[in-house]
Structure formats: structure tokens, C-alpha cells
Amino acid sequence: MSLALSKSADTPARTNWSAYATAYDLLSEHNPAYQALLSEFEGFLKTIEAPALIYDIGGGTGNYTEIAARICPESEIKLVEPDVGMLGVAKAKLSARDNVEYDSSTLEDFDAPGTADLIVCVHALYAMPSQGKRLKDLRRLLRPGGLLYLVDLGRYMNVADWRSYLFAHLKKEHGLLGALRIFWQGREIAKQNKSILEAQKKGVYWTHTEAEIASAVTEAGFDIIKQDSVYRDYSDLLVCRAVP
Ligand SMILES: C[S@@+](CC[C@H](N)C(=O)[O-])C[C@H]1O[C@@H](n2cnc3c(N)ncnc32)[C@H](O)[C@@H]1O
Q1: What is the secondary structure of 129-191 as a DSSP string?
Q2: Is 73 helix (H, G, I), strand (E, B) or coil?
Q3: Does residue 59 sit in helix, strand or coil?
């Protein structure tokens, strides 16, 4: 779907992220594709100069903020997450970290204290209204030359494909009964994934090819340093630099 199509759908029904929140980390812990994304982010952070200010936009339950807080203990990190359920899980998880602050705004309403050296935005942009405008918000929130670490779900969420992928992995690791138990505990995820697929099909959520997201970030004022198809080819990872 094109960027232009998604722009017309500014006020649609959205995923119930709070319902997602309690089960989110359970399945994320057991999802090798999600864990691979976290490892890639950790590797990336180790290659860059420690950023003074980091924003984690749509930071959810705080898994990326947790890595940033650990790898960059001197950085000031702001987790921006509008859903109270997700934010509550993040706050509990990160309570021992004294370099993390929280903001319950959406990206579009975020009143930033300054321009960041690094913005992390993972699997959140597709769920926001008007991605072109949101990418420009991200550009505005970065200092010139600052980095955007962007991962976005671009392709249709094939619920059956994810179910069989996760089930095969869980069965190997925990046996049939263990896999069934974890699936039962994480059943809310399957429900919300279905709602994501419906929102994608209706054009409420943005879907994109690698070329479409590349052109959208370029148009918003970024140079692409690196781009990969990730998360079993459902998502795109882009490391971008804010054009001065
Ligand atoms: C799938 S979760 C991803 C969470 C986290 N980044 C991760 O990868 O684990 C998507 C998050 O985007 C947030 N979100 C949705 N619309 C948003 C908006 N307009 N501004 C900021 N965050 C938003 C949701 O509340 C949700 O927590």
C-alpha cells in the first residue's frame, strides 16, 4: 500500500495495546525473530558514539529502552509511549534504571525537551496516523546528523504463518505441553495480531515495500546508512542520518 493511501485514514480504530501489554513480553521472550531484532539493536549501539539524548518512540514495554539504558548508562533516555498498559509494564521493568524518563504522549503530541542524538522507533510507525508527517516529526526531534534507528512492519501480518513458526519453535524448546501452555498464556497476542492484519487490510495501518519506506524516509529528510529486510521479511530496518 502506498504512503498516500494511508494518509487518508487518520482516525481509524486501533489495536488495543493495553490488552496486548500483559502477554507482549511473554511471547517476545519466546520469539526468536523478536530476540534477533533486540540483539541487532544491541550490536548497533555498541558501534556508535554514546548518544547524550535518546528517544524511544512507541517504546511499548521498554525492551529497547532497557538495552539502551544498559549499554549507554551515561545517556539520558526518554521512553515515549501513549498506551498506559504498555507504559506500566515498561515502568515496572525499568524501575532500577535512573537514566530513563517516561512520557505518555503520542509522537504527534510529544513536547520534546530538546533534539535527540538517537531516536529508536520499532514496530510503531505503521500504527500511527500519517506516516509522512510522523517521519518529519522524527526528523524535527533529531539534531542535524543525529541517527534514526527505525524498524517497521511493512507486510501483511500472516497470523497462521506466525502461529506455526512460533509453535514449532516452542515445541522444540518446551515440548508439546509446554508449547500449548505458552500459547494459551499468550492467546491475547494472536487476537491482537488478527486486529493488526484487519487494520492493515483496511488501510488503517501502513504497509510498505522496502522501496516505499526508503523513499518515505528520504523525503522526510534522512540519508539511509543501512537498510535490511528483517523479522522474517515482514519488516524493514533502516539506520538513517538526519540531513543537516
Ligand atoms: C508493537 S508495539 C512496539 C513496542 C516496542 N517498540 C517493541 O518493539 O517492543 C507498538 C507501540 O506503538 C505505540 N504507538 C501506537 N501509536 C503511536 C503513536 N501515535 N505515537 C507513539 N506511539 C504509538 C503503541 O502504543 C505500542 O505500544
Answers
A1: S-HHHHHHHHHHTEEEEEEEEEEEE-S---HHHHHHHHHHHHHHHHHHHHHHHHHHHTHHHHH
A2: coil
A3: coil
Strand order in the sheet with 76-80: 100-103, 76-80, 53-57, 116-122, 142-153, 235-242, 222-230
- Strands 235-242 and 142-153 turn out to be antiparallel
**Domains of the chain (ranges, CATH numbers):** 3-242 (3.40.50.150)
Using CA positions, which residue lies closest to atom 13 of ligand 1?
Answer: 58
Ligand 1 site, residue 85, Cβ cutoff 6 A:
no
Is there an atom of ligand 1 within 6 Å of 124 CB?
yes
pLDDT for 1 equals 38
pLDDT at residue 3, as a whole number: 39
Does pTM surpass 0.85?
A: yes
CA 213 to ligand 1 centroid distance, Å: 18
**199 touches ligand 1 (CB under 6 Å):** no
Q: What percent of the chain has pLDDT over 90?
A: 78
Cβ of residue 62 lying under 6 Å from some atom of ligand 1: no
Q: What is the pLDDT of residue 191?
A: 82
pLDDT over 70, % of the chain:
94
Closest ligand 1 atom to the C-alpha of 151? 8
Question: Is the predicted pLDDT of residue 56 greater than 80, yes or no?
Answer: yes
